Automatic annotation (TrEMBL):
Annotated G-protein coupled receptors family 3 profile domain residues: 494-707
Family according to the record: Belongs to the G-protein coupled receptor 3 family. TAS1R subfamily.
Domain of life: Eukaryota
Protein name: G-protein coupled receptors family 3 profile domain-containing protein
Alphabetic keyword roster: Cell membrane, G-protein coupled receptor, Glycoprotein, Membrane, Receptor, Signal, Transducer, Transmembrane, Transmembrane helix
InterPro entries tied to this protein: ANF_lig-bd_rcpt, GPCR_3, GPCR_3_9-Cys_dom, GPCR_3_9-Cys_sf, GPCR_3_C, GPCR_3_Ca_sens_rcpt-rel, GPCR_3_CS, Peripla_BP_I
Originating species: Cyprinus carpio
Segments crossing the lipid bilayer: 496-520, 532-552, 564-588, 608-628, 654-677, 689-707
Membrane topology: Multi-pass membrane protein
GO molecular function: G protein-coupled receptor activity
Length: 734
């Protein structure tokens, strides 16, 4: 009858063993390809690691056949080929595949790591039990970042394995802070000494060797021969468990070697299996040229067991993957399987994608690309003991999320101290930004961030970001602090003093207003200006009221009232003083010299026309001032850095100058006229009082602008209110 063939490709390597070790019958036949001979231009010797792989496959098949739960009434057989020569292999392998034209074929690979094989458009039925180069490179990058290194070298060979790894390494170190300081693809007869000397000269202390064991061995031996010391060597999985290199004389001085390997370094029951098989006698009868192993019988069980376990679990899980998928396809239960079901490749592939089982404590599961969900180990070479040992010091898991864990207490470095340094530049202190230096982003100098700025390494370590207006910081800061919002409080002592004096002044002015109103018809009131006195007193009272809007939390309405009320009504008062000064001069000097002009001035109430005209012009300028660019509330950041003073913006500077100029110009005219009357009779000394008041008025403004110019007083808004109050008081003195 017909039987199904399931071809297990644990990567096509050569196998050289006796015929009895190459073939075993079963209901379903598994094919295996292993490299059991190592052939170069000089020698042709047996590969101990390849022979161990063969034994792992046979062990897995025998274990499954002895199982009562997996494929209960189905037996698996195998036929294994040695991959010592491609020209010799093809005939035997193709003959194996084509023995039965009705047979179905499914391949599970244990050794191919090229990332391109994950592309299911090109390789729709490719399944592997070992990690892809993408997974391996990501794992190496995680290790480098775990220890804080960023100045590394990457060495490989010029084959697909290393070339693919280098391409992926360059891709995935982007935005990680890692700089590839040196890279090279070597050939077997390259100058390895020159390479390691270049790396040492560049002060690179971490070297990734992503190459097959033949190249890795030459690199390590060159480092020993050239006295390269105190480096960290990261071994890819292809040579991380090499059994010969740790015994190389002088290897301890080159530094620390850590590698990535299968987490399950030994298969339970495998050693016993090897010992049991070693007691038998091998049948060396050869069916084909690549099913021949004349020297295999000379290997002891200890040699097989102690050989590198690099691919052991991958081969072991490949056999179990096929068995579990076949178990599903054949609709097996606890007692039997349906042998009438024909297992097609697409059926096995469909089941493989759904598999999720535990194998000796390790989860076996595949993603949508038929790549395994990896659970790897970080191993440390302990070359200071005899014999050298491999110790698991960390783990790497991809599910449920990527997790790297390294036991720092188990990590012993070559310097018997802290983690070795391998960075182009020493990391900047907190509060210092990086300044690029050279081609690599890892090379930089450090610059302290100035006041009111900060550096955030998680955001951009090369930039000092400015703090927001509501924040502040000292030099060399990593964060900004929130400014405390301040404004003139009603309860502050200076505020209370100003408000009490303003209230006292308002009461005084109001009392004078009442006295003048009561004695309106008396000569004293008339000589003081008559009805003009009431306009002046009312303007001064309203100007004094504006002082109260300078205290408490400012609002837009307060900003408008505090500035406009004082500016307009104080200007009305100044215009009255100007007219009053002018009239005093006119009575004694202009009336005699210009009688007609004086007559027209008196006849048409020139003093009121002047007051009305100047007040109107000033009123229009105030309207323009508050409409073109309205007075509004802002935060003053020029105050002490830890405070944010709420102030009222002055509005458009041009219109503000016009508004203030009108008031200052009227004051100047008033001062001029009053000075002209300095030689009047003593009983007409009103001009001298006006002169004294206006001098104080201008001195107050000069003092205010001096303080503002040199920032001698933090709260200039409160000072502005004081200035207004003093101006009103000075005018009242008149």
């Amino acid at each position: 009858g017909l039987y199904e063939e399931t071809f297990v490709v644990c990567f096509f390597f050569k196998v050289s063993c006796s015929t009895s070790e190459f073939r075993s019958d079963g209901d379903y036949l598994l094919g295996g390809l292993f490299a059991l001979h190592e052939i170069d231009s000089v020698t042709h010797s047996i590969s101990k690691s390849g022979y161990k792989m063969l034994q792992v496959m046979k062990f897995a098949v025998e274990e499954i056949n002895n199982s009562t739960t997996l494929l209960p009434n189905v037996s698996l057989g195998y036929e294994i080929f040695d991959l010592c020569s491609n020209t010799r292999n093809f005939h035997s392998v193709l003959n194996f595949i084509s023995k039965n034209v009705f047979s179905s074929l499914s391949k599970v690979n244990y050794g191919a790591t090229s990332y391109v094989l994950s592309d299911k458009l090109q390789y729709p039925s490719f399944v592997r039990t070992n990690p892809s180069n993408k997974d391996l490179i990501e794992m190496i990058i995680h290790i480098i970042r775990w220890f804080g290194w960023n100045w590394v070298a990457f060495l490989g060979s010029q084959d697909d394995y290393s070339t693919d790894g280098l391409k992926l390494f360059n891709k995935y170190i982007n935005n990680t802070g890692i700089c590839l300081a040196y890279q090279e693809g070597l050939i077997l007869n390259a100058n390895y000494s020159l390479t390691v000397k270049k790396i040492d000269k560049l002060n690179i202390n971490v070297i990734v060797i992503f190459a097959l064991k033949e190249y890795a061995s030459k690199i390590i031996k060159a480092a020993i021969a050239n006295n390269i010391q105190d480096k960290v060597w990261i071994a890819s999985h292809s040579w991380a468990m090499n059994q010969q290199l740790p015994r190389e004389p002088g290897i301890r001085k080159i530094g620390t070697i850590i590698g990535i390997a299968e987490r399950l370094l030994s298969l339970p029951g495998f050693n016993e299996y090897v010992y049991s098989k070693a007691k038998g006698t091998a049948d060396n009868k050869s069916e084909t040229c690549n099913q021949d192993c004349d020297y295999c019988s000379l290997m002891t069980a200890e040699e097989i067991i102690n050989e590198s376990p690099t691919h052991s679990f991958a081969i072991y899980s490949a056999i179990y993957t096929i068995a579990h998928a076949l178990h599903k396809v054949l609709q097996c239960d606890m007692n039997k399987c349906s042998k009438n079901t024909i297992a097609k490749p697409y059926m096995l592939l469909e089941q493989i994608k759904k598999l999720n089982f535990s194998l000796n404590g390790q989860q076996v599961k595949y993603d949508e690309n038929y790549d395994p969900i990896i659970h790897y180990a970080i191993v440390l070479w302990r070359t200071n003991v005899n014999p050298p040992q491999f110790e698991i010091v960390g783990t790497y898991d991809k599910l449920p999320e990527i997790t790297l864990t390294i036991n720092k207490t188990l990590m012993t470095w070559h310097n018997n101290g802290s983690v070795p340094f391998s960075n182009c530049s020493v990391e900047c202190k907190a509060g210092y930004s990086r300044q690029p230096e050279g081609f690599h982003s890892c090379c930089f100098t450090c610059k302290k961030c100035p006041r009111n700025s900060y550096v955030d390494f998680s955001r951009d370590p090369y930039t000092c970001f400015p703090c927001a207006e509501s924040e502040w910081s000292d030099e060399g800061s990593t964060t900004c602090k929130t400014r405390s919002v301040v404004y003139p409080q009603f309860t502050e002592i200076p505020s209370i003093i100003v408000m009490i004096s303003a209230a006292w002044l308002i009461i005084l002015l109001f009392a004078v207003f009442c006295v003048f109103a009561y004695n309106y018809d008396t000569p004293v009131v008339k000589s003081a200006g008559g009805s003009m006195c009431f306009l002046m007193l009312a303007s001064l009272i309203l100007s004094s009221v504006s002082v109260f809007f300078f205290f408490g939390k400012p609002t837009s309405v307060f900003c408008l009232l505090r500035n406009v009320i004082f500016t307009f009504f104080f200007t009305v008062c100044i215009s009255c003083l100007t007219v009053r000064s002018f009239q005093i001069v006119c009575v004694f000097k202009m009336a005699a010299q210009f009688p007609k002009v004086y007559s027209l001035w008196v006849k048409h109430n020139g003093q009121w026309l002047f007051i009305a005209f100047s007040s109107f012009i000033h009123f229009i300028s105030c309207v323009v001032w508050i409409t073109v660019n309205p007075v509004k509330l802002i935060a003053d950041t020029l105050t002490p850095q830890d405070k944010l003073l709420l102030i009222c913006e002055r509005g458009n500077p041009i219109t503000l100058i016009i508004v203030m100029f009108i008031s200052w110009f009227l004051g100047f005219l008033c001062l001029l006229f009053s000075y002209m009357g300095r030689d009047l009779p003593k009983n007409c000394n009103e001009a001298k009082s006006i002169t004294f008041s206006l001098i104080l008025y201008y001195l107050t403004w000069i003092a205010y602008f001096t303080v503002c110019r040199f920032r001698l007083f933090g709260n200039t808004q409160k000072l502005f209110g004081v200035v207004q109050h003093v101006n009103t008081y000075c005018t009242t003195l008149y």
